[in-house]
Automatic annotation (TrEMBL):
Positions annotated to bind Zn(2+): H274, H278, E352
Domain CAAX prenyl protease 1 N-terminal: 32-201
Single GO molecular function: metal ion binding
Keyword Cell membrane found: no
Annotated catalytic residues: E275, D356 (proton donor)
Classification via Pfam families: Peptidase_M48, Peptidase_M48_N
Family that this chain belongs to: Belongs to the peptidase M48 family.
Membrane-spanning ranges: 6-22, 65-84, 90-109, 146-166, 172-191, 288-312, 324-344
Keywords recorded for this protein, A-Z: Endoplasmic reticulum, Hydrolase, Membrane, Metal-binding, Metalloprotease, Protease, Transmembrane, Transmembrane helix, Zinc
Annotated signal peptide: none
Native species: Desulfosarcina alkanivorans
Cofactor: binding details: Binds 1 zinc ion per subunit.
Protein's UniProt name: Peptidase M48
Length: 416
């Protein structure tokens, strides 16, 4: 083993142990006492159920992470990367086709390992706690549609990256950065129209009190809106959500049918005000810019080390190649990605506070937003008292009690 192998092994182990510690602290933060803002909302039995849901998901997550790590280490030190590389080379294809076959085969093996856990999560844990509403047929179709999208979108993108690294020398990372950036932007435009309808049915919100209230609110803040969609979220889960997607004429506000069924008009307007707030404050563009910058950093460092012999020696591969280098660098880069991810999540949590504040300010008060957050938390069996380390490592949204406190205090975390 060389220094690269030891570095990767150290950070893989450290990451696993750090998340294990955060999980233990998170479970230790569980209290039998219902937090004051939720008294009268969570009855004792439902609150105990939310804690049981947390325990079940935590144990499952730990098991999944342990299996993932053990399978990776067994594959690595059993010479799996070299075996797959030798086999794909033996096909006699060109470097581009060989690279696609190599990465595709590794991805397929990883998918096969993951599927039993995904099945268990959906049809055991989510089923046990009353959330799952999907069927095995729908679940399988979703997997097949996902595979279709990977082939349709992922293969051309990966082909471009491989081609640039093969033919453009030291400027490859810049060409790849441009390609990936263009891909990310295009997907944002086409996803609402072409991709999302592959998985869910979207129907325009019918005329009535709710649509009139949403349109009136949108006009009050100068938000051009002509596309409010209702998604059949109940087809797969009883959980509720709403989101904003797309840009320009392709943008749309989406409400889950489960959300509409459980909330008042004022609460739904507040939830959508939060989503519109993200757009009005350019959070979507800022997070996309952060993702583009993060990609540029990754590709730059990749260009520096992808041809280093020690990178291939660490994985017992005797024939250096661009395709194997992409895979191995992904593992070496994981620590950098981990810290960049923490920064992005911190920014995301600040954006959520700011969007809450925007909703409260523009709808005339925080009551409706607070009520909506409480209902969502109760129905989704949310953990009300997560440990700060667990939040720091895993949360893109602030804990609900922090959001309620900021709303009722009249300030967001960023001081607005």
């Amino acid at each position: 083993m060389n220094w690269i192998a030891w570095t990767i092994l150290f950070f893989l182990s450290a990451d696993f142990l750090l998340h294990l510690l955060a999980d233990r602290l998170n479970l230790g933060a569980i209290s039998d006492r219902i937090p004051l803002p939720f008294e009268g909302r969570f009855d004792p039995q439902t609150y105990r159920q939310s804690q049981a849901y947390l325990r079940a998901n935590t144990r499952f997550g730990q098991t999944t992470a342990a299996v993932d790590l053990l399978v990776l280490l067994a594959f690595w030190f059993g010479g799996g990367f070299a075996i797959v590389d030798d086999w794909t080379r033996s096909l006699g294809w060109g470097p581009l086709a060989t690279g696609l076959a190599y990465i595709g085969l590794l991805s397929g093996l990883k998918t096969l390992v993951d599927q039993p856990f995904r099945l268990y999560a959906t049809f055991v844990i989510e089923q046990r706690f009353g959330f799952n509403t999907t069927t095995i047929t729908t679940w399988v179709k979703d997997r097949l549609k996902g595979l279709f999208l990977i082939i349709l979108l992922g293969v051309p993108l990966l082909s471009g990256v491989l081609a640039f690294f093969h033919h453009t020398g030291t400027t490859a990372w810049i060409w790849c950065w441009g390609l990936v950036t263009a891909f990310m932007i295009v997907v944002q435009f086409v996803a609402p129209t072409w991709i999302m309808p592959l998985f869910n049915r979207f129907e325009p919100l019918t005329d009535g009190e709710l649509k009139a209230a949403i349109m009136a609110y949108a006009r009050s803040i100068g938000f051009s809106l002509n596309n409010i969609q209702v998604m059949d979220g109940s087809r797969r889960s009883s959980k509720s959500n709403a989101f904003f997607t797309g840009f320009g004429r392709h943008r749309r506000i989406v409400l889950f049918d489960t959300l509409i069924a459980r909330h008042t008009t004022d609460e739904l307007v507040a939830v959508l005000a939060h989503e519109m707030g993200h757009y009005q404050m350019r959070h979507i563009w800022k997070m996309m810019a952060a993702g583009i910058l993060q990609t540029g950093v990754l590709l730059y460092f990749m260009s520096l080390i992808i041809g280093t012999p020690a990178l291939f020696e660490a994985f017992f591969v005797t024939h250096p190649s661009i395709h194997a280098g992409l895979v191995f660098f992904g593992l070496l880069y994981a620590p950098v990605d981990f810290f960049l991810g923490l920064l992005v999540q911190h920014i995301s949590r600040r954006h959520e506070f700011a969007a809450d504040h925007f909703a409260a300010t523009t709808t005339g008060g925080s009551r409706s937003m607070v009520e909506a957050l409480k209902k969502l938390s109760v129905h989704n069996l949310s953990n009300l008292t997560p440990h700060p380390l667990h939040v720091f490592l895993n949360y893109s949204h602030p804990p609900v009690l922090d959001r309620i406190a900021a709303l009722e205090g009249g300030k967001s975390e960023d001081g607005n």
